[in-house]
TrEMBL record:
InterPro entries, sorted: Cyt_c_oxidase_assmbl_Pet191
Family: Belongs to the PET191 family.
Keywords: Disulfide bond
Superkingdom of this protein's organism: Eukaryota
Keyword Phosphoprotein: no
Transmembrane segments: none
Stated name of the protein: Cytochrome c oxidase assembly factor 5
One GO CC term, this protein: mitochondrion
Biological process annotations from GO: mitochondrial respiratory chain complex IV assembly
Pfam families: Pet191_N (PF10203)
PANTHER family noted in UniProt: CYTOCHROME C OXIDASE ASSEMBLY FACTOR 5 (PTHR28627)
Length: 67
């Protein structure tokens, strides 16, 4: 992954770590990510858009905007 999405990935991982799934139920990170916690949905979508932008030829040359 390029460095343009690393900030979003870090925020998403931090959000997942702070969910009830990780703190109370002590589940694995992968299981908690599969549950799609509503409080982390914005980070998940932004990360998806960033990764998708890396596949677009224009954004590969110009870089992702705003990250």
């Amino acid at each position: 992954m390029s460095t343009s999405c690393k900030g979003l990935l870090a925020k998403y991982a931090e959000c997942i770590r702070n969910t009830e799934c990780m703190k109370v139920r002590q589940k694995d990170v992968k299981d908690c990510m599969a549950e799609h916690a509503p409080e982390c949905e914005q980070y998940r979508y932004s990360l998806f858009q960033c990764r998708r932008g890396q596949m677009d030829a224009r954004t590969r040359i110009q870089g992702n905007k705003g990250y």
